[in-house]
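INFO batch 0412 | record 1 of 1 | parsing
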Amino acid sequence: MNTLIVKCFLLLALVCSCKAADSIWQLCNTNSNISASSQVSKNIDSLLATLVSKTPSQGFVTTTSSSYNKKEKVYGLAQCRGDISKTDCSTCIQDAAKKIREVCPNQSDSRILYDFCFLRYSQENFIGNLDTGAGLIYFNVANVTETDPKTFDKELGALFDKIRSEAVLPKSKGLGKGKTKLTPFVTLNGLVQCTRDLSELDCAQCFATAVGSFMTTCHNKKGCRVLYSSCYVRYEFYPFYFPLDPAKTGPSVGRISSVRLSP
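INFO prediction complete | emitting tokens
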């Protein structure tokens, strides 16, 4: 796997509500170019309307565009993070559907990820297939100083073993989250989620691939997010999933760098 280091420094602030925000990852496959006036483009618009209307009620949906010509058929998937409300899910999916057509106007294979939702469509049937090809890693450039690296690795591994096991259970719908105390004053928070079209085995495999970056790119860092089309894993030293702990919320500012992953 080749990596391209992208110098991307951001201010990291705790988000306490699901307001519209910029996407954190988007991918437009330039090998899938289409014209704006094509039937495929029209089918994408129709498919997006379906995803926007149907996703909030269940937090997840897969669909296909109706077309007499199989070569013009489009497959779509949308999913919201499992800890947010239906209202916030609806807002996020609407934003994603609008943004993806702006950034990928002439590609039939496109995907976009926000903190709270993911949307993807393609003329290739990707539904039910594990995808850890292209991806993105965000990590806090600051090293962990609250405990020694060996202890941190042990606590991080134990937390993610627990929440990964939780996420692959059918009742969890691909979501696992939890926290552990590193010191009396420092809590490590973690979350994993895979797309709900995957089998339990493929979901577990995606998590294993993503969590592997914790010991390489993100080793001993104070925060890390690994993003793939099929799953998402994240840990932070502050609360970021819902419901938030009102006694422990507050801004956490740090310098963030990213590494883009390509097959």
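INFO post-check: The first helix runs from residue 39 to 58.
INFO record closed
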